[in-house]
Design a protein that fits this description.
It contains six helices and no strands. By secondary structure, the chain is an all-alpha fold. Helix 2 packs across helix 4. The protein starts with 5 loop residues before the first helix and ends in an 11-residue tail after the last helix.
Length: 132
Amino acid sequence: MARVTVEDCIDKVENRFELVLLAGHRARLISQGAPITIDRDNDKNPVVALREIADETLSPDDLKEDLIHSLQKHVEVDEPEADLPEIADASAGAAAVEAEAEDDTVAFDRMSEEDLLAGIEGLVPPEKSDDF
């Protein structure tokens, strides 16, 4: 393939804007050292990324998933919920949960005034610069 066009890729990724996002993400991955799946043929990274999408050597869905993962700042981890003992009466179950919540009091660590002052004295002031 001497020249890659949008028409070569549009049947793999239907939305042109999504195509640009995916190809740009793949080009950045190639720049960071990711292995390429086709012959480079002296092409630059964006062209290689488009050729990979057009030749279907990469799955657009996998590339999209990788792009989404790279943009996420907070990853939610699904933790299993604690199994509550089965209680026949729903109101008794609610009362048991409320009773457990009352028993779990939150305790905060308190610092004495001397400890707080010692911590403040140990702080080093930031260096002043001529920029401000």
